[in-house]
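Hi U.,

Before I forget, here's the chain from the pilot set. I'm dumping it here mostly so it's searchable later in email.
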Amino acid sequence: MNDFSVENLVLTLGVVVFAYLLGAIPFGLLITKLYRLGDLRNLGSGNIGATNVLRTGNKFAALLTLMLDGFKGALSVILASFISKDAAILASFCVLIGHIYPVWLKFLGGKGVATFIGALLALNFFAGIFVCLVWLATAFLFRYSSLAAIFGIVSAPLWIFLFYGEEAFLVTLIMALLILFRHKDNIRRLVDGSEPKIGKD
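Structure:
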């Protein structure tokens, strides 16, 4: 193994570890504890994301959670992009895995929507914007936050293919399927009509 290969291996491992640990920071849990809103895992869906933080009634805490979860996705990709495009793509995957399966919380994390969109915006701004537009349009038309997230995320591989290229398509597709799996309970409630609408949960 030559020096170049060793260097690449070290950089790759560094990207994996850094992006995962950054993604594993449970901002929703930390913010709700900071504001003394209780243990987020015992509230509502038990999820550590912004939607569940909103159920505490503190809109600022929810917004802060949303921004920080998105920021950690973007930051990991931006820093990795200084190494290479492949490193940036790898970071987008690892930061999402960190958020969904954080080591600090016995691998029980969030659903990953905000972190994924943050990573996508950093990977390709236009792809990220179109995902956000799909989310907003779906939320406006149907008033379901989960359905908006599902539609937005499912559309992501298409936008990344169009605006970024095929090299990130497969990774984005895998991430979208993983987030879709994390929404399985929401999908079940959407089907049986028990999913709460925006502003009524």
